[in-house]
Design a protein that fits this description.
4 helices, globular, Heat Shock Protein 90, six-stranded mixed sheet, about 150 residues, alpha+beta, 6 strands
């Protein structure tokens, strides 16, 4: 069952929710809103051990979408795929692919920059991740599994 919610919202349902979705503006507050939604969804599913990593992954994916400069809405969802598996998806209106930077330890100049390592964080914390291109944008997703140690 899929239900679109905008926090804060209290709902009583006959069957448990398996997916939470939202749309956010291209603004820094979108990352904070995504963190709140992921945290609430994982608490709802009682997957407390995944909250910290999922919140960080969601924040990195949304931040990448904000930086594309596209001005459409950012689509966001978190879905429980199984007993111990969660998928986070971020859709934006840009077909520009995010850059995966895996250069080991940063140089002095790179340490000064807060940018460029978001997908490295996603890669290290998720079971798997990827990008699906669409006619009008893309969806970047990551799956996190309970009991899996980050790389």
């Amino acid at each position: 069952m899929t239900v679109t919610v905008e926090p804060p919202l209290e709902v009583e349902l006959d069957e448990p929710l398996t997916k939470f979705t939202a749309e956010y503006p291209y603004a820094p507050k979108a990352a904070a809103l995504s963190r709140r939604l992921v945290g609430a969804a994982l608490a709802y599913w009682e997957l407390f051990e995944l909250i910290d990593n999922s919140v960080l992954v969601a924040s990195e994916l949304v931040t990448n979408a904000i930086q594309t400069g596209c001005r459409r809405k950012i689509g966001f969802s978190t879905e429980r795929l199984g007993e111990a598996l969660v998928r986070i998806e971020v859709s934006d209106g840009s077909c520009s692919l995010p850059v995966f930077v895996d250069g080991g330890l940063p140089t002095c100049a790179e340490r000064a920059s807060p940018r460029g390592r978001g997908l490295l964080v996603v890669d290290r914390l998720s079971q798997r991740w990827g990008i699906d291109l669409h006619a009008r944008g893309k969806t970047t997703w990551a799956e996190l599994r309970l009991g899996r140690r980050p790389r």
